[in-house]
Specification:
The protein is mainly alpha-helical. The chain has 17 helices and four strands.
């Protein structure tokens, strides 16, 4: 393949993303190492030196692995884009399947599967080396393999008709507007169907047993005006020692899910605070706001894709012959390159996410009669049990953290309490 200006432009952005990510990882690691042997004073009383050292070791291991995987992924991406592999494999598959829309959709899925293979060694190493070394991994090799195989089958069954529809829409006037509408509706539909039909294929969900804890949490839901038929406990411990809680679904399919590890780690008052935080996201309209932001981003992305599909130089720069009746190469290239450029906008999206977290924390404090301590205790326990980075560098967290740091959340809760 001959080098052209678009290839150089893309290569520069790939290198720039790697350089920035490695700089952030190094900055975060150096910042953490600067606290070796001198845990910050504000952590004393609830976080001991041994716990601080364990959290630091886990964070440094994750940073090293993330840096290696980033370099590996970027090298694979550069090789795929600039070696001529994509147009070659595309032509070979097209000769075997044909040029119909169903055949083009199949080609895209097969190439997507092939390109996912280099991720498997890193995933395996993360699960059975790094996570296991720090006591988090509960998965077995057979379960890990079964999860990956089920994921491939389910994603293929779901995405194949979606890709077919997108390819069919390309021939319409302003096709990208219709494609945006279709994808946005599909996203909403999946928010309903995913927790009902797909998640149970991977995890077991059981209603929180009758008793004091359930009564306390259901009372909180009633008190805050949140309609919840039940609260589910997920067997997260089957795979990992990490703990979490989340909302999933829309409307009547909405579910409150607690990891079984979370139920074991927190007391009733702390679990009530965590649930109050999650309810806060719902009551404050964060879910529709998030959907609206995602919709705007998707609309802009589809408009840009609409331009790229009609631009011969886009696919031509990477070795494909331009054919308006064959938009699959443009869709494939767009999906591969999206992350290279969206990385630089992650701090903007993180600002909105962190703002929502502050608001949900404040809601939880109000729901507990202005008492911020249960949520603070819960956050501290979650932080120590999950070996979270106790002192992340501000620039690193600006790029990578969708939630405020523990210290930032505590300060906001305490300031709110003092002002009340």
């Amino acid at each position: 393949m001959e080098i052209n200006s678009l290839m150089v432009f893309v290569a520069v952005f790939i290198v720039a993303r790697v350089a920035m990510s490695l700089f952030l990882d190094s900055l975060n690691a150096s910042h953490l190492r600067s606290f070796a042997g001198r845990m910050p004073e504000r952590f004393k009383g609830w976080f001991d030196e041994a716990g601080f050292a364990k959290s630091s070791a886990y964070t440094l291991d994750r940073l090293r692995l993330n840096s290696l995987l980033l370099v590996w992924d970027s090298l694979v991406l550069a090789l795929v884009l600039f070696s001529g592999f994509l147009p070659w494999i595309y032509r070979e598959l097209e000769l075997a399947t044909g040029r119909s829309v169903p055949a083009q959709a199949l080609i895209l899925l097969v190439i997507s599967l092939i390109l996912s293979l280099p991720d498997l060694p890193g995933d395996w190493w993360s699960t059975f080396r790094v996570e296991a070394r720090h006591g988090f991994n509960n998965s077995s090799p057979s379960l890990w393999i079964a999860d990956r195989l089920k994921g491939v089958v389910i994603s293929s069954l779901v995405m194949y008709p979606v890709v077919c529809v997108l390819l069919l829409l390309v021939g319409l006037p302003l096709w990208w507007v219709w494609a945006f509408a279709f994808l946005f509706i599909f996203q909403l539909l999946m928010m309903i169907l995913y927790p009902m039909f797909i998640m149970p294929l991977f995890n077991k969900f059981t209603p929180l047993p009758e008793g004091e804890l359930r009564e306390r949490l259901m009372s909180l839901a009633d008190r805050t005006g949140f309609v919840a038929k039940t609260i589910l406990v997920m067997d997260g411990s089957r795979r990992s020692g990490h703990s979490n809680a989340f909302f999933t679904g829309l409307g009547k399919s909405r579910r409150v899910v607690l990891y079984d590890t979370l139920v074991e780690q927190l007391d009733a008052e702390e679990l009530e605070a965590v649930l109050a935080h999650e309810i806060g996201h719902h009551k404050l309209g964060h879910i529709p706001r998030g959907l609206a932001v995602a919709g705007v981003i998707m609309f802009i992305g589809m408009a840009f894709l609409g331009w790229l599909v009609a631009e011969p130089g886009f696919v031509g720069s990477f070795g494909f012959s331009f054919d308006p009746s064959r938009p699959a190469p443009a869709l494939m290239l767009f999906s591969l390159l999206a992350g290279v450029f969206s990385f630089w906008f992650s701090p903007l999206l993180a600002v909105l996410s962190r703002r929502h977290e502050y608001q949900a924390d404040a809601f939880a404090s109000r729901a507990l009669q202005g008492d911020a301590q249960p949520l603070i205790r819960a956050l501290r326990k979650l932080h120590t049990k999950n070996l979270g980075n106790p002192v992340p560098h501000p620039l690193y967290s600006a790029f990578h953290y969708s939630h405020p740091t523990l210290v930032e959340r505590e300060d906001a809760l305490l300031n709110q309490h003092q002002q009340a």
